[in-house]
Amino acid sequence: MSNKEQTLSIIKPDAVERNLDNEIKEMFxxxxxxxxxxxxxxxxxxxxxxxxxxxETKPFYNDxxxxxxxxxxxVMILEKEDAILANRELMGSTNPKDAKEGTIREKxxxxxxxxxxxxxxxxxNAKIEIDFFFKD
Length: 136
Ligand code: UDP
Ligand code: MG
Known about the structure:
By secondary structure, this protein is α+β, with helices and mostly antiparallel strands. It has one domain: 2-Layer Sandwich (Alpha-Beta Plaits), CATH 3.30.70. Helix content is 41%, strand content 21%. A 4-stranded antiparallel sheet has the order 2-3-1-4. Helix 3 (45-51) packs across helix 4 (61-68). The longest helix is centred in the last third of the chain and has 12 residues, at 123-134. It is globular and about 40 Å long. The relative contact order is 0.25. Bound molecules: uridine-5'-diphosphate and magnesium ion.
């Protein structure tokens, strides 16, 4: 049965800064993702705090929000069969050191905090995150 999904992807400041956006988008397209909407923006720290609210009790929360708001990011809606899981697979582990060969984080991630991309982790969060950036 067909299960076309949409997921939210973010190319984070460390990757935008190194001009890796086209190469990363090409990796998505090569895996069959369609980029159905995208925009390059810079967000306020208060918006990053909202976006990452699920992590508010974590020790890395403040640095994470400072980081995500530190420079331009590219937010994208990706569409494909089982897009949420497929994107998580293509991204690789949160820590680039543990990411499998051929994944985005293995190729481009610098460290656990500067790991180049974000991807929604569930159907429910994909909806919330897409609305967060694209509902006007
Ligand atoms: N993060 C961090 N230190 C950690 C764990 C996570 O800086 O020890 C950052 C990292 O940028 C990660 C984000 O917080 O991408 C969100 O963490 P999550 O566990 O949701 O990882 P992801 O879903 O991005 O793989
Ligand atoms: Mg996550």
